[in-house]
Design a protein that fits this description.
Layout lengths: L2 H11 L22 H6 L22 H5 L6 E7 L4 H11 L4 H13 L7 E4 L4 H7 L3 H12 L3 E2 L4 E3 L11 H8 L3 E3 L7 E9 L3 H12 L4 E9 L2 H4 L1
Parallel strand pairs: 1-7, 2-3, 2-6, 6-7
Antiparallel strand pairs: 4-5
Helix pairs in contact: 1-5, 5-7
């Protein structure tokens, strides 16, 4: 479904109001779920970010964390900081099933990745079959559909699978998150020599993306890049 058309449907269902403040959307404004003021309030990430993990770093150089422990992934592109009102949008999609937000978040991410190096394949972080049945959709896949279309990249939703259900990362201490996802993914697709983007809604410690990147490189991927809607600041998440 075209993004503009899905936005028009969503606006109609919401009564033409801004999703965040419920104020009226401006006449003549390009189809959106947000008014101009709320759109301007989104915590877009600027320069001065580590190219590997997207955390703040002086002059955009590799940060100390990535120098001390080189991640399995090669780069991270993040559209927003994970704070108000971006967190409201992400949580509404993920936990309340507000699927009308997927085109909005996907387009925000797509605008960022359009300025990054091209990739051959885009895949979402997979959910376990149990979590998928419970939620009814994979929010990362819904975002990935739009982001991949923005850069005309091939989407491969079944390239990887989650082998087992794991406790939600958000409910675990940071130190336990890497252990929680160890061995949780598998990739049966031959990725020899390919540059691959992995899409997720939020990146916090990066443990899930680290484990998935490790599996993708075992499958032959030459480069793995994270495409995430929002990046958590460790100081804010502590």
């Amino acid at each position: 479904m075209p993004i503009a058309f899905s936005h028009r449907i969503a606006a109609r269902l919401l009564g033409g109001d801004c999703f965040l403040c419920r104020g009226a959307l401006e006449a003549g404004r390009a189809p959106s779920l947000l008014c101009a003021a709320c759109d301007e309030d989104l915590p877009r990430l600027g320069d001065g970010r580590c190219p590997r993990c997207a955390l703040a770093s002086p002059r955009g150089a590799l940060c100390g964390r990535c120098l001390a422990h080189v991640p399995a992934f090669d780069a991270t592109v993040a559209a927003l900081g994970y704070r108000f009102p971006a967190d409201v949008l992400v949580q509404a999609l993920k936990f309340r099933g507000e699927l009308s937000l997927a085109p909005l978040l996907g387009a925000l991410l797509g605008a960022q990745v359009a300025r990054a190096d091209p990739v051959a394949l885009v895949l979402p972080v997979p959910l376990s079959s149990a979590r998928l049945r419970e939620r009814g959709f994979n929010q990362s896949l819904e975002i990935a559909r739009v982001a991949a279309a923005c850069v005309q990249a091939r989407l491969a939703p079944r390239a990887c699978e989650r082998l087992r259900d794991t406790p939600a990362q958000s409910g675990l201490p940071w130190a336990a998150r890497a252990r929680n996802v160890r061995g949780a993914f598998a990739c049966a697709m031959d990725l020899a020599g390919l540059s691959v983007a992995v899409v997720d809604d939020v990146m916090t410690t990066g443990a899930t993306l680290e484990e998935l990147a490790r599996v993708l490189k075992q499958a032959g991927a030459a480069r793995v890049v994270n495409w995430v809607v929002a990046r958590t600041d460790p100081a804010e998440a502590a």
